Amino acid sequence: MHRLCPHTRGAALTPAGVTLIRMVVVGFSRNLLRPSVGREASRVSFIELFFDLVFVFAVTQVSHLLVDHTDVTALLHTVILTAAVWWVWINTTWALNWLNPEIGWIRGLIIVLMLLGLLVSTSIPEAFSGREMLFAGALVLMELGRTVFTALAFARFRPDHAMNFARIAVWQVASAAFWVWGAFVSPDLQVWLWLAAIVTYAAGPAMRFWLPGMGGSEMDSWDISGEHMAERVGLFFILALGESILVTGSSFSEGTINGVNIFALVTAFTSTVLLWLLYFNHSQRGGSEYLMSAAQPGAVARLAYTYIPLIMVLGVVLAAVAEALMMKDPSGRVSAWAAGLACGSFAVYMIGNALFRRAVGGKWLVSHALGALALVALFPLHPLFSALQLGWLVNGVTILVVITDEVVWRRRPTAGVHRMTKRAV
């Protein structure tokens, strides 16, 4: 657990210093922050899980967009919307790492964010065809409202964080300009403007939210609770994997109950279990332990728990779409589109998991790289297989990766030390 001293002193009357003084004057007089020690410092509260329900719906909406429109444009829209959903969720998670969700003011904030998130989610299917302004407006209100609130919550008790969130607010205003502008232009230009909004989101943390006259945030001030961050991101993966279960179940319930469809259900369910194993078997636990012991947990979380998970979430979403398409006719020849999504989604997920493991102090996962290459090589052969057969070939490659990962994990030096310690005890 890493927390800084609650006060900073001696700020010079630079433009940044003037901004700081003004924020202190208007900030909340009550301390709305989590305690720095004890279970409450890192506990995931029930209202945070309640907040996630909106994002269950959002992920479902995003995946169904691509199920209903099988073309490259829809794929690009899916990538943009997945990134938007991820960024608004992870930005909220960062804020709630410091804000105390057991306090009424913070619960009120979360509930308002849920309502805005519901508006974002309902507009996803027509975000590029009729509900652009609703999507952009609700998203911008979520981001700016939460950021300004958090800055004011920090103002009197953590001026260093108040300055950080003041910087973040400026960056989000820049991103908001692209979101809103994109809602008023042609669909072709809208794609580029909303891509620019996503790039602005991604550039902010990488540049430590640098601003002229204010500089950038000090990484030491990103004193997060590693346990809370790791658990929250793990729960989002569970949420995304839940979409695969929903797709599998709904597709099966709409079809005829026969041997082929039952086997297709087993195939899709196995795919979801394998995706779960790739991350939760070892990566989640190892990442959590590494983050909690890191000298600068904020720097680790910026890469491992902010950027890289987006790759993995995108892989899960695309895998759910592939399962839905392949279950429509499991015994028929698989289309190039469905085969590309099936092979590509698992390859993307493996690459993301390998990057994550490296970002939290592990070695490069050669098995994941080889697995991704095998899936890429499998794609040109898809005309030879039915959807069901291709599904099991993808599962087979993934099973080999999971087994190899398990063997490597058991043979790592620390595993031997752990076994010796247990025998001694």
Structure description:
It is a single chain. This protein has 425 residues and is mainly α. The chain folds into 2 domains: 15-221, no CATH class; 228-424, no CATH class. Helix content is 74%, strand content 0%.
List keywords for this structure.
15 helices, 425 residues, mainly alpha, single chain, disordered N terminus, 74% helix, disordered C terminus
Short description:
The protein has 425 residues and is an all-alpha fold. The chain has helices spanning 15-26, 46-68, 72-96, 104-123, 132-154, 159-182, 187-206, 226-254, 259-280, 283-293, 297-326, 336-359, 366-378, 387-411, 413-424. The longest helix has 30 residues, at 297-326.
Helix content: over 70%
- The sequence of SSEs as H and E is HHHHHHHHHHHHHHH
- Biggest sheet statistics: none
Alpha-carbon distance between the termini? Answer: 28 Å
How many E strands?
0
**Helices and strands: which structural class?**
mainly alpha
How many domains make up the 3D coordinates? Answer: 2
**Percent in strands:** under 5%
Shape, per Cα inertia axes: globular
Helix and strand topology:
Layout: H1 15-26, H2 46-68, H3 72-96, H4 104-123, H5 132-154, H6 159-182, H7 187-206, H8 226-254, H9 259-280, H10 283-293, H11 297-326, H12 336-359, H13 366-378, H14 387-411, H15 413-424
Helix pairs in contact: 2-3, 2-4, 2-8, 2-11, 3-5, 3-7, 3-11, 4-5, 5-6, 6-7, 8-9, 8-10, 8-11, 9-11, 9-14, 10-11, 11-12, 12-13, 12-14, 13-14
